[in-house]
Amino acid sequence: MTTSSADTRSVDSRREELAAGLKETRQLIEKLSHEAGRDTVPELLPVTKFHPAEDIALLAELGITDVAENREQEARAKAEELSDVHFHMIGQVQTKKANHVARWAHSVHSVDTEKLAVALNRGVENAGRDVLPVFIQVSFDGDTARGGVPLDGVAELAQIIEDLPNLDLRGLMVVPPLDTDAKEVFTTVRELANKLGEQLERTMKLSAGMSADLADAIASGTDIVRVGTGIMGARPLG
Fold it and tell me: Pick from 98, 224, 120: which is nearest to 167 by CA?
């Protein structure tokens, strides 16, 4: 199959768009980190949901090895097509799909129940793979319908995960509820992650911060930021 010059121009144009988005986002993260007085900048995890595998392949050409996805079936298809890219699950996971997620996910940022943790642990065993890094998703306001475990349930779920041999607890993830003070949310969960780390005697990371609340997340000490539109542009229509 041959590639027309128009197709080549289209691919080159898209690569340039992604490169520009990456550059601008990285510069913003560095600027915000400097303003917050941080010695290090958080890890950037591009969010690629709804964008085609071809875009992610171009990101890989630009040096991106890790991306985040929200929907299991979409992410699984992309992971099968792009074996050199690490796909991280940041969306809610139905327990019945845990076996699938455990096969393709490089990490899961949205563990919020014992049932899901046990299902992922079983899925890792069935897949015959190495341990799966996971983050506990925190529900700041206690409304678990949107995903997450309430603040007062984090320690218990953490201990459950610690007792599962195929999961490796790496930290906490949070998305500020609407009409809340994002900085208060991030600061509270950062402190909770630090406290959990002291109890477990290892560092617990914080996965928090998207385009709209990046400054507050970075100032509060997040370790991983998840940026979609700033890098990928508007979602494709269809």
Answer: 120
